[in-house]
Amino acid sequence: MPGSIKRFEKQFRAVVIAATLLVVASIGCVDYVAGRELSFSVFYLFAVGIATWYLGARFALGIAILSVMVSLAGDLAIGGRYSNRLVPWWNVSITLVFYLFVIALLARLRAVQGILEARVKERTAALRDEMAERERVERELLAISENEQRRIGHDLHDSLGQHLTGVALAGQVLEETLSARGLPEAVDAGKLVDLIEEGISLTRNLAKGLHPIEFETDGLMLALEELAASSSDLFKVACTFECDSPVIVRDRTASGHLYRIAQEAISNSVKHGKSRHISLQLEALDTGIALRVKDDGCGLPDPLPTRAGMGLRIMAHRASIIGGTFEARCDGSGGTLIAVLLRYPEPTGGNVP
Amino acid sequence: MNKPKTNIYLVDDHPLVREWLTNLIHQQPDMAVCGEAETAPEALQGIGRLKPHVAIVDISLKDGSGIELIKSLKSAHPGVAVIVLSMHDENLYAERALRAGARGYIMKRETAKRVISGIRQVLDGNICVSERLTASFARKFVGGAAAQDEPPLGRLSDRELEVFQMLGQGRETRQIAESLHISIKTVQAFCARIKEKLHLHSATELLREAVRWQENQHRS
After folding, report:
1. Which distant-in-sequence residues (6+ apart) come within 8 Å of A213 by Cβ?
2. More confident residue, A267 or A82
3. Partner-chain residue, chosen from A166, A171, A172, that has the shortest CB–CB distance to B14
4. Contact B23 A173 (CB under 8 A)
5. How far is A342 from chain B (nearest CA, A)?
6. Is residue A339 left, alpha or beta, with left meaning phi > 0 and alpha meaning psi from -120 to 50?
């Protein structure tokens, strides 16, 4: 590539040199025909200007000297008379100084423009780097928070859950001991065991929220099914999960983000959309896997308030991280539709078992 | 009290659970804990040596799946009745544990109240699962899906069976469509018909049934 650019630059230079010389020659001819009285020095300036801008000050100096020489030669060839033999030389010198002045100005302008261009290029590159870096950091932050949640979920489920199981067993032992001795406190001990078991359920549900997807092939489907059920309970709405044929998402990151998008969409739809029915749909299309959250609420407000906008932005961001497209719009029937399309990565070898 | 006590072996990687489960069992006049283990290999060795009547197994052990342990126990020591204790939801694991050879499944959040009665149930030759799960098994039985060990695949057309098999191999809808040279929509239509014929209610159930069937094929 640099080779072809260099060749192009060389060709361009040759063309500009030829054009400049041609301009000087043509103006020289006209100057000669027009006679001694008319000054053409301003027209030579055109060639000098082109040379300065495209070929540099040194070449432009050459063109300037050439121009005054051509002009002088023409005047001398016409054979005019001057009051003093030095007059034509004086005029030539004045013109030359004028040209030099213009060359200096133009060269300076050109240099400044070059610097500006380079600076803009530099800033653009830096900006692009910064954007890439920021995207990387955002991705990492989300991954960290996801991992942290998973870890806490795991700890809750395993350590605290197991510990509470031990405690419930201890309570049961106490209850049986007390009741064997015929003490009325046995009833309280029994209640205690119930309370601890409720605690285990609570721990499990908390862990489920933090670490929703089991690593099974049907993990995402199961998790969304449970999400629909628990949302119906929690928000007192009719939330259904529709998935006609099995949809398998093997990429854990992708299924994690799809789940969080669904979770956020449901919570938005209840809190901001005031909807009564929410339908969660997962479907394999020809182009990819589609997740849709449809509701019968009041639709998206226009313009979006900052907070709701934030939720949408995070959903869109999650979709972009897993290479999906995100769409949030008012449904035809008045509610809101949130849709994510996760394109298939590449053609699979369908015939390989 | 001349009757010999029922010997119980505990497999759980949480010491507090083992300790208090032991205390609870020892409170029963007719039961005793004869040994305990944290890992599957330890458990296999201990159970082989002590020959307990009942083994209580947590399926999420540190060194891997308790389901595998249940399978090994069933083949090596078929006389030992295994009861599963688990933090996991019964919907997810109970059926799998029972198929692997367990005789009961108790979730840890109800262990304290149910474990003793569960042991007695199993000793009486019964299966110990929650009422909810019993009801769900019964529904399946009435629906016909569990009438034989195998799902009634005879009702499926050749093409439907092919799709069912591929689902069981863990293939995605798109892969199935590609290898059968049909559209994804057609695969989905097949799935809908299979669900209807096998009395399955959701895509999740369909996938699980297909995987289970595939596993059985491999075994036999």
Report:
1. A219, A220, A222, A223, A252, A255, A256, A259
2. A267
3. A166
4. yes
5. 13
6. beta
| C-alpha A205 chain-centroid distance | 36
The domain locations on chain A are: 2-132, 142-210, 219-343
Distance, in Å, from the CA atom of B25 to the CA atom of A13, rounded to the nearest integer, reads 98
Distance between CA A213 and CA A281 in Å, rounded? 17
- Angstroms from B18 CA to nearest CA on chain A: 8
One-character DSSP codes across A215-284: SSTTHHHHHHHHHHHHHHHHHTSEEEEE-SS------HHHHHHHHHHHHHHHHHHHHTT--SEEEEEEEE
CA distances to A103, A139, A146 from A132, rounded to whole Å, are: 43, 11, 21
Beta bridge partners of A326: A340
Domain boundaries, chain B: 6-138, 144-219
Alpha carbons B98 and B137: distance in angstroms, whole number: 12
Chain B interface mutation, best of A201, A216, A245, highest count of B Cβ atoms under 10 Å: A245
The verdict on a CB contact (< 8 Å) between A348 and B172 is: yes
Contact B70, B82 (CB under 8 A): yes
CA distances from A140 to A143, A146, A310, A318, B142 (A): 5, 10, 19, 12, 51
With CB atoms and an 8 Å threshold, state whether B108 touches A200.
yes
Residue among B179, B191, B204 whose CB faces A350 most closely: B179
8 Å CB contact of B172 and A218: no
Check if the interface score ipTM surpasses 0.85.
no
pTM of the model: 0.63
Q: Which residues in chain B touch residue A350, judged by CB atoms under 8 angstroms apart? A: 174-179
> So what CATH class is A219-343?
alpha beta
Contacts of A221 in chain B (CB under 8 A): 202-204, 207
The partner residue sitting opposite B16, judged by closest CB among A166, A214, A244, is: A166
pLDDT tens by residue, B45-74: 999 999 999 999 998 777 767 888 898 999
Tell me the CA end-to-end span of chain B in Å, nearest whole number: 46
- In angstroms, what separates the C-alpha of B112 from chain A's closest C-alpha? 5
Structural tokens at position A80: 């005019």
- Distance in Å from the first CA to the final CA of chain A: 45
pLDDT digits (tens, 9 = 90+) for A104-131: 999 999 999 999 999 999 999 999 999 9
Pick the CATH number of B144-219 from 2.60.300.12, 3.40.50.11240, 1.10.10.10, 3.60.20.10: 1.10.10.10
Q: What are phi and psi of A277, to 5 degrees?
A: -120, 130
